[in-house]
């Protein structure tokens, strides 16, 4: 038996509770992992609260991330005792995820815990930090360089935004952070932001073509914010889009694309091929200081996840939330 946060459908509503579950109920997979830490992401919060139909089948254990130790394996690459990490691949959506003390998954979805990181630190990074690194790498593949001008990060107080600031600043970029919480400016500057602006400057409907302000951007927000970012990129600039905190819509014009040659780079973190995952995690392990990793994270127990999920959707939680599934 093991403890897990289980989501069940009851009268068209999602019911979330921590339960003791028989290991025999675990879904199919060739690797059984003893989970040490998981996380609470925006997507997890949507699943737990039922605000958006993230979960495809019920009952479901949410949690798009976990780090732990292999207990059983018939996969060629992993053996008992190996430390591993999982991000995405439908965990918490189409098959049981990481907010539990045990997880059975396909070994193809696992990577070794990066050298130099503990399981807790890997979850402090989690999908948020991993996505931020994918965004930075996407911008650099496009040709963005530190001397090109300011790089904007929207949704800067969230997990992805916080890590994007730290990663880009360390790589030599002048980072401008956009946030709705001015009280967090000291923390954002400590992470590496050279300037902090209020998100209201970007969140309302704007002109299809605006003053050129940003050489590049990492957008975690979507909707009008992303449209305004595209409209205010330098000629040939690019935005790595990875989030939808403001909305899934994109009320934009083609003007920035055909008159300034800007690029909209979609960044997915769920089904990224293994080699790109390994490169991203290797860069995280070598570039991010432990102090930075710990700075953007807070820790909760498994039983607190339901309450914190509601507060996360209300914008009351800053940075990363690590879940110790064993307390």
UniProtKB/TrEMBL annotation:
Q: Which InterPro entries does UniProt cross-reference here?
A: Acrylyl-CoA_reductase_AcuI, ADH-like_C, ADH-like_N, ER, GroES-like_sf, NAD(P)-bd_dom_sf, Zn-ADH-like_protein
Q: Where is the Enoyl reductase (ER) domain?
A: 9-323
- SUPFAM superfamilies listed in its UniProt record: GroES-like (SSF50129), NAD(P)-binding Rossmann-fold domains (SSF51735)
Molecular function (Gene Ontology), one example:
acryloyl-CoA reductase (NADPH) activity
The source's domain of life comes to: Bacteria
Mind telling me which Pfam families this protein's record contains? ADH_N, ADH_zinc_N
UniProt-listed NCBIfam families: oxido_YhdH (TIGR02823)
Kindly give the PANTHER family that the UniProt entry links to this protein: ACRYLYL-COA REDUCTASE ACUI-RELATED, SHORT-CHAIN DEHYDROGENASE/REDUCTASE
Annotated protein name in UniProt: Putative quinone oxidoreductase, YhdH/YhfP family
> To which species is this protein native?
Caballeronia arationis
């Amino acid at each position: 038996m093991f403890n897990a946060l289980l989501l069940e459908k009851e009268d068209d509503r999602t019911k979330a509770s921590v339960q003791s579950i028989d290991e025999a109920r675990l879904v199919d997979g060739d690797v059984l992992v003893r989970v040490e830490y998981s996380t609470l992401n925006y997507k997890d919060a949507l699943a737990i609260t039922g605000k958006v139909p993230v979960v495809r089948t019920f009952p479901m254990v949410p949690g798009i991330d976990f780090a732990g130790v292999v207990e059983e394996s018939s996969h060629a690459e992993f053996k008992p005792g190996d430390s591993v990490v999982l991000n995405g691949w439908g965990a918490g959506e189409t098959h049981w995820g990481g907010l539990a003390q045990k997880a059975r998954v396909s070994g193809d979805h696992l990577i070794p815990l990066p050298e130099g990181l503990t399981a807790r630190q890997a979850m402090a990074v989690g999908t948020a930090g991993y996505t931020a690194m994918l965004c930075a790498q996407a911008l650099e593949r496009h040709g963005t360089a530190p001397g090109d001008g300011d790089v904007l990060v929207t949704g800067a107080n969230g997990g992805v935004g916080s890590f994007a600031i730290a990663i880009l600043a360390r790589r030599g970029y002048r980072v401008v952070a956009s946030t709705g919480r001015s009280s967090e400016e000291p923390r954002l500057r400590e992470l590496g932001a050279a300037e902090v602006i209020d998100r209201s400057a970007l969140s309302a409907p704007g002109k299809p073509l605006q003053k050129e302000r940003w050489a590049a951007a990492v957008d975690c927000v979507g909707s009008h914010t992303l449209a305004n970012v595209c409209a205010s990129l330098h000629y040939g600039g690019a935005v790595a889009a990875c989030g939808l905190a403001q909305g899934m819509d994109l009320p934009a014009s083609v003007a920035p694309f055909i008159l300034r040659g800007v690029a909209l780079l979609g960044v997915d973190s769920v089904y990224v091929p293994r080699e790109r995952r390994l490169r991203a995690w290797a860069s995280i392990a070598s570039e991010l200081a432990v102090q930075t990793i710990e700075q953007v994270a807070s820790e909760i127990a498994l039983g607190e996840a339901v309450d914190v999920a509601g507060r996360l959707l209300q914008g009351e939680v800053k940075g990363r939330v690590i879940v110790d599934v064993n307390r």
